[in-house]
Amino acid sequence: MKKYCLALDLVDDPVLIAEYENWHKAGNGWAEINASIKDAGVLQMEIYRTGNRLFMIMETEDWFDFDKKAEQDYNNPKVQEWEQLMWKFQQPLPWAGEGEKWVLMDQIFVLNPSVIQP
């Protein structure tokens, strides 16, 4: 299993942030989106927020590949519809690449390295 941590900013507007959170409450997301995430090898996903900054933790199968997931998403009309909807709320981090939303974070500390899988 692999673990990835990613970050993204929301538009700094309390109304839009509340609406974004509402879309992500249990039962409000689209089943097709959850299925596409799972089909790509994502075993668990959590999103946390502080202010307008989001932090995502993904636990994946060893074979998970970001490029393959991006290609699958590009070819899935329902995922594209969801992504267009979410862009209303999201803004890229200043150091994000062109068209990049979620940015991978670098791990800088581990309390107990012996319990972390390589």
TrEMBL record:
<dbReference type="InterPro" id="IPR011008">
    <property type="entry name" value="Dimeric_a/b-barrel"/>
</dbReference>
<dbReference type="InterPro" id="IPR008000">
    <property type="entry name" value="Rham/fucose_mutarotase"/>
</dbReference>
<dbReference type="InterPro" id="IPR052996">
    <property type="entry name" value="Carb_Metab_Mutarotase"/>
</dbReference>
<dbReference type="Pfam" id="PF05336">
    <property type="entry name" value="rhaM"/>
</dbReference>
<protein>
    <submittedName>
        <fullName>L-rhamnose mutarotase</fullName>
    </submittedName>
</protein>
<dbReference type="GO" id="GO:0016857">
    <property type="term" value="F:racemase and epimerase activity, acting on carbohydrates and derivatives"/>
</dbReference>
